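As promised in the previous annual report, we have extended the structural survey to additional targets. Below is the entry for Iron-sulfur cluster-binding protein.
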Amino acid sequence: MQVHSPQFKERASAALADAPLQKALTRFRDGFQAKRAAAVAGLPEFEALRDVARDIKNHTLAHLDFYLERYADNVERAGGVVHWCPTADDARAAVLKICQDAGARTVTKGKSMISEELGINAHLEAHGMEPVETDLGEYILQVRDEPPSHIIAPAFHLNREDWEDSFRRAHTELPADREFHERRDILTEARARLRNKFLTADVGITGANFLIAETGTSVIVTNEGNGDLTQTLPRVHIVLASIEKMVPTLEDACTFIRLLARSATGQDLSVYTTFSTGHRREPDLDGPEEYHVVLIDNGRSGMLGTEFQDMLRCIRCAACMNHCPVYGAIGGHAYGWVYPGPMGSVLTPTLKGVDKAGHLPNASTFCGRCESVCPVKIPLPSLMRHWREREFERHLTPPVARRALGFWAWFAKRPAAYRLATRLGARTLKLLGRGRGAFQSLPFAGGWTAGRDLPVPEGGTFMAQYARRQRGKT
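The corresponding structure token record, generated without further manual editing, is:
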């Protein structure tokens, strides 16, 4: 799905009217939010770990060139190969060449959002190879030819009946009496289909949650074990990772691991946490014959030293979107690209341009919940505000919005006129709304009343009430 931000409002409206999607989103609050709260409550030092993790990331980003070089040296010392890729085209070309050199026909993939960003599947298919998603959620989306709607639960927008319908259409030999009443039934069907793919794949591609400079190690966390099978069974293992995944030491990685699962799924630890360093060596019983790391910039280095550098601390836990009221109302597809929710509202304009994705940082209530739950304390509302400023400076906001803001600014710079205007406006609305609690429609307020009622003002303006209370205190 490509970014085309002028359609964001249309996609959001369609999502709000999509009954199956709204049914799926009812799991939002009782799922991720409740589990995270319980997991955090069980770790008294959680807040202190957030500070430590933030500081580790800030230090790493300040010395990223040093740690990247150290990481690459250690990968090569362990027998691996590092491919430096400034752009998405470079990364696609590197992956394709590795696969072609291996004579690959089938390529299995562990969950990797960076591969979605790069469009790896389509690129491999265009060159005669079969990419196979092995994560359960990614697999059903591949069957349905849909993009992910969430960065850790890619099929979050689907209901059980959607899974059953998709399997019956794709797996045409299924008996009519085959039942899919429980998650176990879905897992069994997917496992049966994927087992032979794991055994026959020539190349396995995984993402990386962290890259450890000290040892040249990549770390991946999963709950299904598909990442382990993707790394160890094929002859060639490719790690796709963007440069900000770097951490200095094993101890630092363990700090992030303590935060990641608790923030993401509410677990103390993911079921599988796998450390990979190089290819199979002489005493090893299994593992790949070749180990490649494709290091991807694709716009990240341009964020260093700017007001958006804090975004590079992101560890892709999805806590921000799990607590975002906007994401909870419209889901992930409405955002139009790989990264939805608050983190996507900051990252997408950075990678694709505010001219193409300017609606995303405006899709926020600025409630601040995203920042309050972020395990590395990224100030997401402030970063979205920076994008709004950039959009305004480049005259990308609609003329009506610019005129309205200019009209408000004129009054805001003149306190006496502002107080008079708000006092008259409140009194007028109070008179017009006499006998009813709210307006269902109102001239010049159609953007508001189209989706919600406008309450009739009660009492005086905020400034008048504040002044009265201050006088009462003295």
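DSSP finds 23 helices and twelve strands in the chain. Residues 399-473 form one domain. These points will be discussed at the next consortium meeting with the crystallography subgroup.
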